[in-house]
Amino acid sequence: MSIQGFLNLFSIVVGFVAALFFCVGSALLTRKSIGELAGTYWDSNPHLAKLLRALKAEYFCGGLALCVTFLLQFLANVPGLFPDIQVFGDALFSAIVALISGFLFGALLLLLRRKLLTQLTTTEPTHR
After folding, report:
1. Chain centroid to CA 85: how far?
2. Is the N end or the C end of the chain the one with fewer CB atoms within 10 Å?
3. What is the DSSP string of 107-123?
4. pLDDT digits (tens, 9 = 90+) for 12-36
């Protein structure tokens, strides 16, 4: 498989990771959490604040993965950017490498999500 083919394959995997980050926020909403979000509170709603922090982190990671996807596709499709050599001899091996690379990229994004959530939690806004 050529470099261009591998980049296209890897961009598909990273695009799937981006889609997962965009979907996870709403997919994890339970009936209980929806009820907590819909409830009224004096001063502020801590459940809504927690949800918004999580959504911000997930959308940031999903957007970053989506940008990487487009960059990989752009690099793979620019004519003459990479030499036309075979990097991987076997298509199955290149698919496995792309899946493992995508999994590692997703794991890095999960670490970034955790760090963002920590930062967002420690910098609580002040109420007036």
Report:
1. 31
2. C
3. HHHHHHHHHHHHHHHHS
4. 999 989 888 888 777 777 777 777 7
| pTM (global) more than 0.85 | no
Q: Is 86 helix (H, G, I), strand (E, B) or coil?
A: strand
- Residue 80 in this model has a pLDDT that exceeds 80: yes
Q: Where are the domains of the chain?
A: 3-122
Total Cβ atoms within 10 A of residue 53: 18
Query: Between 125 and 60, whose confidence is greater?
Result: 60
Taking the C-alpha atoms of residue 124 and residue 128, their distance in angstroms, rounded to an integer, is: 13
Query: How distant, in Å, are the alpha carbons of 33, 42, 46 from that of 37?
Result: 6, 13, 9
Residue 2: strand pairing partners: 86
Amino acid occupying residue 97:
V
Work out the angle at residue 59's Cα, subtended by the Cα atoms of residues 46 and 69, and round it to the nearest 5 degrees.
165
Mean predicted confidence (pLDDT) in 70-89: 84
The full length of the chain comes to 128
